[in-house]
Write a sequence for this structure.
């Protein structure tokens, strides 16, 4: 308004200010109340000469006081709101282009971003400017400026995306828009982190703005507050580790990383500490193999973002290894067979499988392949028949790992399933190519998978299979003896790997199987195996092109759920970071799928480079809080009216002891002290009135843990909180009288301080004029509903809500509050919902009003063609119930059991309100059990009892 950040809810009321001059004239000609003077005896009166006198006029200072009081009342009725708005769009009538970063790092402070965007759109609505909205992590598409109301609806539908945004992809559409709308104001609400695009978006945006005469405003946090998690490459046997990342130093130097299983239960925790100026640090978990293999995800505690989650798949977990020995039955004896040493070495970190005894080599290999092993270990297996050879080759080509060990049969054969060409016969102690004493292993090369392991000096190799000299032999050698002859070689074949130990798996050729080095070497080899692939009829090229469909995906806040419609399948060897078409999550089957994460090993969060955005106005996301001036103006008007009353009494002579001179001169001095006191009392902020809990009934008191209690959220509005307490108290009395449940006294909860886990049901009355709850409070409510609690949101607006009209203030308040909560799909309570039959048979849930709709989580529909069930229920208790019927007012009872508030209908409505409340409590405490209990008569009848 005239460049001042002041708006009015009812601007038409300001028209009454036109009447102030007339009021001035009216008050000026109206004399003050005459003073009463005691006259002397009548003799003196007789000497008075009658003359015509003009009435005294109202003093100017009193006129000003009354006009000021009237002006305060008029302004207060107009509903003034002081809305500074901070740094935002430049003033004017040109369209507003709002660019909102909603990539994976924007989820941390998403509520602040929504509030800043909402403030900008509302400011544009007050100025009559159309708004165009661009979300940087969405797919690029042409856009146009629309009405602010439509932009607000679009804004409510935008959510953080679980991948890095590509701002550069939107530059073309932004340029097209600015060509059509030159001079449009641009507001960029940035997350402060460089996105997935390789270009310099800030410089390109600044160039477009200068070319089309647009002013740019940038809103961002002073330091990017987001933390992210990047999963390091996993090797079995090593510690599970991850990297905690941030774009810049932001004061968040410590935290906790949790390891969770597939059900979301915590398995381990590890605390991390970032140096003040560091941008990354490592965190590790030293766990037994069994616990480590059960880990499904790592996450930063308290960081609700897909970027703070690392999903774990089969890579790095326990592998399925099949063992086959090519010797005869008498050689396959316990403690003697090569498979015994292999099983002992592999069992700590792999799922070892062996064929049924008595089978031939071909049948044993077939059984292992049918079991879909990841690693097939062949100990001294010679030539294979064509069919078995083809299956093994296909297994390797499709990504399997073939681990072979030498022996007499392999040395005498001509097997193509080896990584290098072999010399027939081998090399042994005392032979033609012999050595004087057993040779030991040389140090492992840095590029070898065994790098970092130290070969013991007491390892002796008495015999080995030699590899034919070849140009690529050094590149395929993983381990060698001190004389340089290979002892372990490997080669890539298709999508798989073939590894050959040039000694036996038992102690006949060397004492390597007796050493701890043997276990560590096998651990490294098995770690190179990928998840098992189902063997089909296709060749290697078909297996390479196999696609895995999304099974579960993360949303922007890091919660697993059903994949969106836009998610597409990924190749089986997919190793890139998540994107719009491939959101982070699990792809493929639960047994052999892969995990896709928002960040991949090697990723780092880079701060946004704003040097190219010259001339832009910079602002913070926090902005300035709006201030409702009605209470202040009403209080000021009341104080001025009180001063006017005192002034009238003084002019009427009621304060005889005040001054002897002219009333006009003495009035300011006489009224100075009352004026100061009145203004101080009127303008002093009053502390919120809250009912005091008895010591035993406080939310975190011992009573909360020892007794079942209903709870309500303390809103700060004294009347609403009193009605909530009385309502839950009345419902508790009815529960004790009609059911076996005897609840304790209701508890009033402060969401910022109190623990919510003690309470099965929380009643939350919506008061539109109160501030929105903080981010921490919203997260506590979210965790409460995730863990099985139920919250009743009561807007209490059933009488004022209209089906096709605009939302009521209470409904708008609730929508804004639930914007960042994971609210499930809702539906009106269906007639066959277990909630309608939990204790009483009811068909509605009235309160003080009976016309409002009651909403609960959507439950699966009844099966078609199946038997009609008396009651249906979902997998759990609905975490949210929304109504507008003012339930607490209908439940509220006085000390003598009398109703405290009237209801819109008759007393039958109050009784049905109590029955509905009892059903809600019983349903919350018993869940789906009631859905089966109501079937008991039909079951007994069917059993003939």
């Amino acid at each position: 308004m005239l460049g001042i950040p002041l708006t009015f809810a009812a601007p038409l009321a300001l028209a009454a200010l036109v009447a102030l001059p007339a009021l001035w004239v009216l008050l000026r000609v109206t004399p003050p109340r005459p003073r009463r003077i005691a006259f002397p005896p009548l003799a003196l009166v007789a000497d008075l000469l009658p003359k015509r006198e003009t009435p005294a006029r109202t003093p100017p200072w009193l006129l000003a006081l009354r006009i000021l009081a009237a002006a305060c009342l008029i302004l207060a009725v107009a509903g003034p709101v002081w809305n500074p708005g901070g740094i935002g769009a430049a003033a004017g009538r040109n369209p507003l282009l709002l660019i909102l970063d909603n990539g994976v790092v924007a989820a941390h402070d998403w509520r602040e971003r929504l509030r800043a965007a909402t403030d900008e759109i509302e400011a544009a609505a007050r100025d009559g400017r159309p708004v165009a909205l661009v979300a940087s992590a969405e797919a690029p598409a042409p856009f146009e400026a629309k009405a602010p109301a439509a932009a607000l609806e679009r804004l409510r539908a935008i959510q953080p995306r679980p991948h890095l945004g590509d701002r550069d992809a939107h530059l073309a559409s932004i340029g097209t828009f600015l060509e059509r709308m030159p001079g449009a104001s641009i507001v960029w609400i940035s997350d402060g982190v460089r996105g997935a695009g390789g270009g310099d978006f800030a410089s390109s945006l600044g160039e477009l703005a200068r070319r089309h005469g647009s002013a740019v405003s940038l809103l961002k946090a002073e330091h990017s507050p987001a933390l992210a998690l990047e999963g390091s490459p996993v090797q079995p046997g090593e510690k599970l580790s991850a990297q905690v990342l941030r774009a810049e130093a932001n004061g968040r130097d410590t935290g906790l990383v949790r390891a969770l299983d597939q059900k979301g239960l915590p398995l381990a925790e590890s605390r991390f500490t970032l140096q003040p100026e560091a941008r990354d640090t490592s965190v590790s978990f030293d766990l037994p193999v069994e616990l480590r293999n059960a880990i499904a995800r790592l996450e930063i505690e308290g960081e609700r973002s897909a970027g703070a989650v690392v999903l774990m798949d089969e890579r790095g977990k326990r592998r399925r290894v099949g063992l086959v020995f090519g010797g005869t039955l008498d050689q396959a004896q316990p403690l003697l067979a090569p498979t015994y040493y292999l099983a002992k070495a592999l069992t700590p970190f792999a799922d070892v499988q062996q064929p049924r005894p008595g089978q031939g080599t071909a049948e044993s290999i077939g059984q292992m392949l049918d079991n879909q092993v990841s690693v097939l270990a062949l100990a001294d297996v010679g030539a294979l028949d064509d069919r078995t050879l083809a299956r093994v080759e296909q297994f390797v080509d499709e990504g399997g790992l073939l681990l072979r060990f030498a022996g007499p049969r392999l040395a005498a054969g001509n097997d193509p399933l080896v990584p290098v060409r072999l010399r027939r016969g081998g090399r042994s102690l005392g032979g033609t190519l012999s050595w004087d004493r057993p040779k030991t292993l040389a140090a492992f090369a840095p590029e070898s998978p065994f790098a970092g392991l130290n070969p013991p000096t007491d390892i002796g190799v008495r015999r080995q299979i030699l590899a034919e000299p070849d140009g690529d032999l050094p590149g395929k050698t993983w381990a060698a003896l001190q004389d340089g002859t290979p002892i372990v070689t490997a080669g890539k074949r298709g999508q798989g790997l073939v590894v050959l130990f040039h000694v036996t798996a038992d102690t006949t050729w060397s004492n390597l199987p007796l050493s701890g080095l043997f276990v560590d070497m096998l651990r490294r080899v098995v770690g190179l195996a990928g998840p098992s692939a189902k063997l089909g009829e296709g060749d290697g090229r078909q297996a390479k092109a196999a696609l895995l469909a999304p099974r579960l995906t993360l949303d922007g806040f890091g919660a697993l759920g059903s994949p969106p419609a836009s998610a597409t399948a990924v190749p089986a060897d997919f190793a890139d970071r998540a994107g719009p078409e491939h959101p982070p999550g699990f792809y493929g089957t639960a047994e052999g799928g892969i995990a896709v994460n928002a960040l991949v090993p090697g990723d780092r969060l880079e701060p946004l480079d704003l040097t190219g955005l010259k001339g832009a106005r910079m602002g913070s996301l926090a902005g300035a809080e709006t201030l409702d001036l009605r209470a202040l103006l009403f209080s000021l008007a009341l104080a001025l009216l009180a001063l006017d009353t005192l002034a009238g009494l003084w002019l009427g002579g009621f304060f005889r002891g005040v001054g002897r001179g002219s009333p006009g001169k003495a009035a300011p001095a006489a009224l100075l002290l009352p004026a100061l006191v009145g203004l101080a009392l009127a303008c002093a902020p009053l502390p919120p009135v809250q009912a005091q809990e008895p010591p035993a009934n406080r939310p975190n008191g011992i009573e909360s843990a020892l007794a079942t209690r209903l709870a309500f959220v303390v809103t700060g509005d004294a009347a609403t909180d009193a009605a909530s307490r009385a309502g839950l108290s009345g419902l508790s009395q009815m529960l004790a009288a009609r059911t076996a449940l005897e609840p304790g006294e209701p508890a009033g909860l402060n969401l910022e301080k109190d623990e919510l886990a003690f309470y099965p049901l929380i009643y939350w009355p919506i008061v539109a004029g109160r501030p929105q709850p903080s981010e921490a409070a919203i997260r506590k409510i979210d965790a409460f509903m995730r863990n099985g609690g139920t919250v009743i949101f009561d807007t209490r607006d059933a009488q004022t809500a209209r089906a096709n009209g605009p939302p009521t203030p209470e409904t708008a308040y609730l929508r804004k509050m639930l914007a960042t909560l994971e609210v499930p799909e809702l539906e009106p309570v269906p007639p066959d919902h277990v909630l309608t039959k939990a204790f009483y048979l009811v068909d509605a849930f009235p309160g003080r009003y009976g016309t409002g709709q009651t909403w609960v989580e959507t439950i699966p529909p009844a099966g078609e063609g199946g038997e009609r069930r008396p009651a249906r229920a979902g997998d759990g208790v609905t975490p949210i119930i929304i109504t507008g019927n003012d339930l607490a007012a209908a439940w509220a009872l006085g000390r003598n059991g009398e109703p405290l508030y009237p209801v819109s209908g008759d007393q039958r409505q109050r009784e049905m309100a109590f029955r509905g409340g009892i059903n809600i409590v019983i349903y919350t405490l018993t869940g789906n059990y009631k859905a089966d209990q109501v079937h008991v008569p039909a079951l007994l009848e069917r059993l003939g009892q």
Q: What stands out?
A: The two ends are 79 Å apart (CA to CA). Residues 630-651 form the longest helix (22 residues).
